[in-house]
Specification:
about 220 residues, alpha/beta, five-stranded parallel beta sheet, 8 helices, binds adenosine monophosphate
Length: about 220
């Protein structure tokens, strides 16, 4: 099963991607995670992406498409399927992906759209904290750690993403409505989208996700 998970910043893509990947044993790629890892390691790709990512802007399609293409080439167990998180985010990316995968085992089967109202997103984003070591995601309002600043799972230090501030959030939300919502509409016309009400409890969201992926 090949899945795109799409949603605005703070819609729960990262949190539910970890659960989906484990439950269905999928190859998982988050384009945002790859950019962040490259930026912190100071690679060539990181240098190209840094200014865009830190201001909340989309990294140019050419750079992003090449990165995804390179990743697809490394997938050894294509039969297990993938979960693509944070891609495609523009119509050009969607079309480039189709060119890379149409008629192969790598064509996408289903698009999960995580729907959350904008006012809820702002609170989720500004309260988000991530463990430096294991990547677990918390929220100071809705999912605090037992000890402030320390990961419950591994004891690692929690950090706030550089782009999780109100200024870059505004840019990211604009990017989402201008560039990414049209991608959801595009797949909607092909009848490939399952909408998930992601403004609900973790259990409710998880049940909707499993229901959407049943028999896929
Ligand atoms: P995310 O973790 O998905 O919110 O992504 C963080 C940042 O990485 C975004 O604000 C963009 O700067 C960059 N990024 C991630 N995925 C893409 C993509 N598909 N296209 C362009 N830029 C991306």
């Amino acid at each position: 099963m090949n899945i795109f998970i799409m949603g605005a910043p703070g819609s729960g893509k990262g949190t539910f991607s970890s659960k989906i990947k484990e439950e269905y044993n999928l190859n998982h790629i988050s384009t945002g995670d790859i950019f962040r890892a490259n930026i912190s390691q100071g690679t060539e790709l990181g240098l190209q992406a840094k200014a865009y990512a830190e201001q909340g802007k989309l990294v140019p399609d050419e750079i992003t498409n090449k990165m995804v293409k390179d990743y697809l080439a490394t997938l050894s167990d294509k039969k297990n399927g993938y979960l693509l998180d944070g891609y495609p985010r523009t119509l050009d990316q969607a079309k480039a992906f189709e060119e890379m995968t149409d008629g192969t085992d790598l064509a996408v089967d289903v698009i999960l759209a995580m729907d959350v109202p904008t006012d809820v997103l702002t609170r989720r984003i500004t309260g988000r904290r991530t463990c430096k070591d294991c990547g677990e995601i918390y929220n100071i309002y809705s999912k605090p750690t037992k000890v402030e600043g320390v990961c419950d799972r591994c004891g690692g230090e929690l950090t706030q993403r550089k782009d999780d501030n109100e200024e870059s959030l505004k840019v990211r939300l604009d990017e989402y409505s201008n560039n990414t919502e049209p991608v959801i509409d595009y797949y909607e016309k092909k009848n490939m989208v399952s909408h998930i009400n992601a403004d609900a409890s973790m259990d409710e969201i998880w049940s909707s996700v499993k229901e959407a992926l049943k028999n896929k």
